[in-house]
Write a structure and sequence with these properties.
This protein is mainly alpha-helical and 304 residues long. The protein has 9 helices and 2 strands, in the order αααααβααααβ. It has 2 domains: 164 residues, no CATH class; 139 residues, no CATH class. The protein is 70% helix and 2% strand.
Length: 304
C-alpha cells in the first residue's frame, strides 16, 4: 500500500505542475503556439524553426491571435504544457490500476481515482475546445476550473489513503466559518478571472507589449478585486484567531494566513511593478493553494 500512497502523492504534485504550466502558457501568450489539437502544426513533434513547417502551414497561422507567424518559443511552451497534461493522464491511469487491486481495502480511494481519471479526460478534451475557440475567455475560465477540480479530487484521494479524513472533531460553527472563507476566496478568484479577461483584451490590442499600461486605466473589476482582497485578509485573520487553539488545525490556518499574505504581495507586485511575467502564474498558484488548504481543513475535520 505504501507504493500506492507514493504514486498518489506524485500524481498530486504533478497536478500542480500542470497548473503552473498552464499559468506560464497564459503569461507568455503561448496558448495558440500550437494552433491545432491534438497535433501541433499537424505534427506529433512540433517544428523548432520555420524551415520545418509543413507545406500547408499557413492554414494554422491564420487562426493564431498574436502575430500570425511561427514562434518556436510559444510553440514549445504550449507543447510542453500538453506533454505534462498527457503525462498526468498516464499517471491517472496507473493510479486507477494500482488502486483497483487494493479496492477492497479502501473503496473510497478507488472511487476517487476513477473520478480523477474522468476529470483528467474531460480536462484534456476541453483543452481541444479551448484551442478550437481560439482561447475564448469563457473556455479558458472553465479549463482553469477543471484544473482546480483535479487538485481537490486528488487531495481527497491522498487524504483517504493517509487516513486523515474526518479525524478532528470541531464545532459546526468552525466548519461553517471555514466554508465561508472558502466561498469568499472563490468569489475573489472569480473577480481575478474578470481582471485577467480585461488584461487579455488590452494586451492583445497592444500586441502583448507595454506591460506597464495593461492596468493603467484601473477597470472596475480590478478595483473591486483589489478592495475585496482586504475582506479575504480580514476573514483569514478572524479564522486564525478563532482556530488558533484547536489542536490539529492551528498550524494549517497559520499556513493559510501566510499564503494569503503572499498572494496579496504578488498582487501588489503585479500592479506596481508593471505586471512582471513571473508574478502572474505565481499569483494563480497561490490562489489555488489557498483553496486547496481550506478544502484540506474541511476534509480533515468533522462536526460534533
Amino acid at each position: 500500500m505504501r507504493a500506492a500512497k507514493n504514486w498518489v502523492l506524485a500524481t498530486f504534485i504533478l497536478t500542480f505542475l500542470v497548473i503552473i504550466a498552464g499559468g506560464i502558457v497564459r503569461t507568455t501568450q503561448s496558448g495558440m503556439g500550437c494552433p491545432d489539437w491534438p497535433k501541433c502544426f499537424g505534427m506529433w513533434i512540433p517544428p523548432t524553426n520555420a524551415n520545418e513547417l509543413p507545406p500547408d502551414f499557413e492554414k494554422y497561422l491564420r487562426v493564431q491571435d498574436i502575430d500570425h507567424t511561427f514562434n518556436a518559443y510559444h510553440t514549445w511552451i504550449e507543447y510542453v504544457n500538453r506533454l505534462l497534461g498527457a503525462l498526468l493522464g498516464v499517471f491517472a491511469v496507473i493510479q486507477t490500476g494500482v488502486l483497483f487491486f487494493n479496492r477492497n481495502k479502501n473503496k473510497t480511494a478507488f472511487k476517487l481515482s476513477l473520478g480523477f481519471l474522468a476529470a483528467v479526460i474531460l480536462t484534456g478534451l476541453f483543452g481541444a475546445i479551448v484551442v478550437k475557440l481560439n482561447l475564448a475567455h469563457a473556455s479558458i475560465s472553465v479549463h482553469l476550473l477543471f484544473a482546480l477540480l483535479l487538485a481537490e479530487i486528488q487531495l481527497a484521494l491522498l487524504m483517504s489513503l493517509q487516513q486523515k479524513m474526518a479525524k478532528i472533531v470541531v464545532s459546526k460553527k468552525v466548519r461553517r466559518y471555514i466554508a465561508g472563507l472558502l466561498i469568499i476566496i472563490f468569489i475573489q478568484s472569480i473577480l481575478g478571472t474578470m481582471v485577467r479577461i480585461y488584461v487579455d483584451d488590452v494586451s492583445k490590442i497592444l500586441h502583448y507589449e507595454q506591460r506597464q499600461t495593461w492596468l493603467a486605466a484601473m477597470p472596475l473589476a480590478f478595483l473591486i478585486h483589489r478592495s475585496f482582497s482586504w475582506i479575504v485578509l480580514l476573514s483569514t485573520i478572524f479564522i486564525i484567531i478563532y482556530c488558533k487553539k484547536i489542536i490539529g488545525i492551528q498550524k494549517n490556518v497559520y499556513y493559510l494566513g501566510a499564503n494569503i499574505f503572499a498572494s496579496m504581495v504578488t498582487g501588489i507586485i503585479l500592479f506596481y511593478l508593471d505586471m512582471p511575467a513571473i508574478a502572474q502564474p505565481l499569483h494563480l498558484l497561490l490562489a489555488t493553494i489557498a483553496i486547496t488548504q481550506l478544502v484540506y481543513i474541511l476534509l480533515k475535520t468533522k462536526s460534533t
